[in-house]
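Notes taken during the Thursday session

The instructor put the following on the board and asked us to keep it in front of us for the whole hour. The protein is N(4)-(Beta-N-acetylglucosaminyl)-L-asparaginase. We were told not to look anything up and to reason only from what is written here. First, the residues (331 in total):
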Amino acid sequence: MSDSSSQIVSHDQSTWASIATWRMAYEGIVKSSSGLEEGGQAGDAVEALIREVEANPDYTSVGYGALPNREGEMEMDAAFMDGNSMAMGAVAGIQHVLHPISVARQLSRRHTSSFLVGQGATRYAQVSGFEMRNMLTDRARERWELEAAKTTTPESAGPYRGHDTVGTISLDAHGSMAAGTSTSGLFMKEPGRVGDSPLPGSGFYVDSAIGGAAATGLGEDIMKGCLSYRIVALMGSGLSPQEACDSAVYEFDDLLRNRYGKVGEISMIALNKRGEWGVATNVEFTFCTARKGEQIRILMANPDGKGGTRIEPVTKEWLQEYERSLKAPLK
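Then, after some discussion, the predicted structure tokens were revealed:
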């Protein structure tokens, strides 16, 4: 089985593009964009971007230095999907692995046993030669101890403010697309808890003939609507990425409020085969975009209250406060 280098879609342009969730993806999208500019593959771009986030101990919701579950153990989820072949691989509850996204991508090359969980996923990574590491830094343990004193029930766990799942979709100059996700999950989550991130159709989905989508937020609510698949299907019916995101997120937000009585944080990103992107969210949400011939940007999205999304560049003051908060003393 090949990666995204196989060309199955017509592509009459050399455009490449990427979109990723949260400000924390910026360094990764800078790195992955250089590969796309040089003619690299979408799958490589997705993996490179997410690996950059996974290895950064400043980001408390993904990879090294992230927060563990209620028992102080780090359980991570990740997924990778090739938009040409539709192959996907995923891990859930994996432990002691520096780059879960790379494990997920390797699993995507298998026809069976491509989604592994818990001890099976960890064992597979270990015997396959992936880098193993104690993922709990001293700062992460201190932060966990502070949270443990405040978090008394599983229901009090919630997504991170300013961080959550890193999700990305990339389009390369050959017309191939790929998508990926990685997360350590909710603050103080119940051991064994899995959200939407490794679930195809919920946390991510990509089809090179149409486009892709990825999610971040409260997985228990996102998976109720299979929102990534829904957005790709809407793009396939002729909607732009922005129209598809707005339709999927705000209609589903209304549905859950009416039927379930409440709804958690939901933010979605999308990219189509022409390199056009869209975003919708029911909270304040930052994201990063890159496209051939354009400057890499960090943008802020908010719901406009009218069934649409207000998008604007982040301010210099916001960025300064963000950088300060990463190193601020714990309390």
